[in-house]
Amino acid sequence: MVCGGFACSRNALCALNVVYMFGISCSCLAINRSKQTDVISASWWVMSNKTRDELERSFDCCGLFNLTHQYQQDYALCTAICKSRSPTCQMCGEKFLKHSDEALKILGGVGLFFSFTEILGVWLAMRFRNQKDPLANPSAFL
Predict the structure, then answer these.
(1) What is the CA radius of gyration of the chain?
(2) CA dist., res. 99 & res. 97, Å (int)
(3) In angstroms, rounded to a whole number, what is the distance separating the alpha carbons of residues 59 and 82?
(4) Is residue 14 pLDDT above 80, yes or no?
(5) Cα 85 from chain centroid?
(6) Which residue from 91, 95, 101, 127 has the highest number of Cβ atoms inside 10 Å of its Cβ?
(7) pLDDT at 4
(8) Whole-structure pTM over 0.85, yes or no?
């Protein structure tokens, strides 16, 4: 069977879409807490002080993780509301981990659902593509 033109490229793109969606969904579900911590920590140190301050105010937390001497400096510069209400604030890293964990699980589940739905659709299309209509005129061609 020869494949050419738009039909072939369309089928290849659909197959590639299924593979990408399945791969991304699996990686979202497979990422563990320590990898999430690494990603959050790496992005925290790249951010500007203004962005950190906005995140601390919007999430109502101070500092990232209490693992380094940098946490003390972040906590001292924190302007979140929780700091004025109580002597200690929740660390932003814990809140970020909670939100990212929930988001990754939801994204992975939804992605797997749609990738399996696409695989089912391709299988059904291939299975029933060339069947004749039972209500059609039997003497008609195709």
Answers:
(1) 26
(2) 5
(3) 10
(4) no
(5) 34
(6) 91
(7) 56
(8) no
Averaged pLDDT, 88-102: 88
3-state secondary structure (DSSP) of residue 80: coil
* Token pair belonging to 107: 């994204």
- Look up tokens 């301050």; give the residue: 53
pLDDT given for residue 45 in this prediction? 84
Alpha carbons 26 and 131: distance in angstroms, whole number: 35
What tokens does 104 get?
């990754």
Residue whose tokens read 């979140």: 80
Query: What rounded mean pLDDT belongs to the chain?
Result: 82
| Percent of the chain clearing pLDDT 90 (strictly above) | 18
Alpha helices in the chain (DSSP H): 5-30, 33-46, 49-59, 70-77, 81-85, 92-128
pLDDT-based confidence at residue 8 (cuts at 50, 70, 90)? low
- CB contact set of 49 (below 8 Å; sequence gap of 6+): 77
Looking up tokens 């969904």 gives 25
- CA separation for the pair 52, 61 (Å, rounded): 10
Task: Copy the structure tokens of residue 82.
Answer: 């929780």
For the chain, the residue count is: 142
Q: Tell me, what amino acid is at 98?
A: K
Phi, psi of 94 (to 5 degrees): -65, -40
